[in-house]
Every structure is written in structure tokens, then in C-alpha cells.
Amino acid sequence: MPLVTTTEMFKKAYEGGYAVGAFNVNNMEIVQGITEACQELKSPVVLQVSKGARAYANHTYLVKMVEAAIINCPDIPIALHLDHGPDFETCKACIDGGFSSVMIDGSSLPLEENIKLAKQVVDYAHAHGVVVEAELGTLAGVEDDVSVSAEDSSYTRPEDVQEFVEKTGCDSLAIAIGTSHGAYKFKPGTKPQLRFDILEEVEKRLPGFPIVLHGSSSVPQDFVQKINAHGGKMPDAIGIPEEMLREAAKMAVCKINIDSDIRLAITASIREYFDAHPDHFDPRQYLKPARQAVKDMVAHKIKNVLGSDGKA
């Protein structure tokens, strides 16, 4: 199965009441762990690459690793997506460089400027058979080059979404309903809460249109505890409750982004391994269980959060 766009997988997800997992990739082990889980569970998947990942691993290496995953996992649809494209030039480079989907993030701009930028990307992408995700509303938190303070974050205004989608022609829309980037999404003692009222209103205004949730890692506490038990310092790391994400997936949300949970799974595994084997120095020794940790975590998300198992 060749690389695909997200159009068909999102249509099926909307109608089927589940979401497709969009997992950030940075190296070979992450790509392998994610796609092996999806292949075994027959789940569609979006492999997404941030600006930071392209700077770290190189665009060509990332594209070729995804091409290898397609060969090794022939039974599942795989989309390659640019996460948080900061400008037209970055989106164009990814469109020209083999991606099947790009996100243009103009969420920090005034509405009209966001519309203008998104429309520019949409026109170029659609002319090249690539789909576009845009964003309205601003998430707090830190992820790679995206850093927004709580004070500067803002919920999506449902009254803006119809105008935005109609004027830009974007294929999916990321909205802000209370999720947050990174592993420190909420202050200790506060109760995480998603604004399902905003999601419901958006769904009414854009019936059948695929919605995306960024910053949706749940920050599993077993990973955090393992990291801290083996020399790490991650106090007060809190994420989005999985039951809230599952509820969103039953509604208009067709794509749920997960990055921090991958990082936590890898880090917890490697810290535990080094404590148990201080004499080991072969990267293959500790990256093999780290890859398995990613695979196990992704399998859990597919079965218990996304509901996308058996939907390939």
C-alpha cells in the first residue's frame, strides 16, 4: 500500500466514531515501534514530523524510514504529515519532498492573517495532491519549537470555524479545547478538563468535518514513576485523562496527536535498563527494549483510546 493522504482514513474515523493516532517520529526505533503495533492491530496511522525532527534527523532520512515502514507494514494505510509547519516555505518543502499531508500553524496570527496563510498553503498543496491541516485557537505548553504560555493560550471560537474552513479550503482543523503540549499540562491539584461544549458547537457548525486534537498525551504515571525511580526528575508531570480523549474520538475528532508519551516510554525504558546493566554500552542493547516500550504504548492507545484497531 503506497503512502496515502488522510482524506479516506478521516472519513471512516468520523463515521465510525474513532480517531486515528498521529504519532511524532524522530528516529528509526520510534518509526518501527509505532508501525509494528499498527500492523499487528490493523490500525491506520499518521506518522508526523515536526520542524525540530527535520532539523534533528534530516528530511530525507525521515522520508526513507517511512518508506521502509510502508514496505514492512503492507496491510495498513500510512500518512506522512508535517506537524506545526511554521510558514509556507516549510510546508512547500515537505509537499515537494514526499509528504502526503502538511499542517500550517498560523494560530498565533490574527484571524484574517491566519486565513490568508492557510489559503496559500492549501492552494499549493491541493495542486500537488497533498492535504492540509490548519489550526484555530492556541494551545499552551512546549513542544519542539512551539512554546506558548498559559496566558497567551486561547480556546477556539466556534463562531470562527465555518468562515475559516470555507475561506481556506483546509481539509482538517486543529482546535483548542483544553489540551496542552508537553508533559506538564496541568498544575498539581487541578482537574484536567476538556471543553466538550466547544467541540459540540464546532461539530454543529461543521457537520462531517474532521477535527484534530493536539497536545493529547496522557503522561502515564507509570512512566513518570519509573523515570524518577531511576535518576530522573519529573515532578508534577500531568496529562490528559484517556477517558476524555476516548470521548472526543467518538465525536468529531478524527486525529489525536501523541508525542510526549512516546518520549516518556523511551526514556523510562532506557533509564531502567542502564540502572540494571551499568556495564552495557551497545546502543542496540538498550534501544531494543525502548522500541518495544513504544510499541506497547501505541498498542495501548489504539485499543483503549483511539478505538482504531481493526479499522485499516
Molecular structure report:
With 312 residues, the chain is α/β, with parallel strands linked by helices. 48% of the residues lie in helices and 16% in strands. The chain has helices at 7-16, 28-41, 51-57, 59-72, 88-96, 111-127, 158-168, 196-205, 221-229, 242-249, 260-276, 283-306, and strands at 20-24, 45-50, 78-85, 101-104, 131-136, 140-143, 146-148, 172-175, 180-181, 211-213, 253-258. The strands form two sheets. An eight-stranded parallel barrel has the order 1-2-3-4-5-8-10-11, surrounded by ten helices. The chain starts with 6 loop residues before the first helix and ends in a 6-residue tail after the last helix.
Please summarize what this structure is:
The chain has 312 residues and is α/β, with parallel strands linked by helices. The protein is built from 12 helices and 11 strands.
Please name the defining characteristics of this protein:
12 helices, 48% helix, 3-stranded mixed β-sheet, 8-stranded parallel barrel, 16% strand, alpha/beta, 11 strands, 312 residues, single chain
Tell me the layout of helices and strands.
Layout: H1 7-16, E1 20-24, H2 28-41, E2 45-50, H3 51-57, H4 59-72, E3 78-85, H5 88-96, E4 101-104, H6 111-127, E5 131-136, E6 140-143, E7 146-148, H7 158-168, E8 172-175, E9 180-181, H8 196-205, E10 211-213, H9 221-229, H10 242-249, E11 253-258, H11 260-276, H12 283-306
Parallel strand pairs: 1-2, 1-11, 2-3, 3-4, 4-5, 5-8, 6-9, 8-10, 10-11
Antiparallel strand pairs: 6-7
Strand content: 15-25%
Tell me the radius of gyration. Answer: 18 Å
Give the tally of β-strands. 11
Strand order in the sheet with the most strands:
1-2-3-4-5-8-10-11
Tally of alpha and pi helices? 12
Name the average pLDDT: 93
Helix percent band? 40-55%
Span of the ends, CA to CA: 11 Å
Class computed from helices, strands and strand pairing: alpha/beta
Tell me, briefly, the overall form. globular
Largest sheet descriptor = 8 strands, parallel, barrel
H/E element sequence: HEHEHHEHEHEEEHEEHEHHEHH
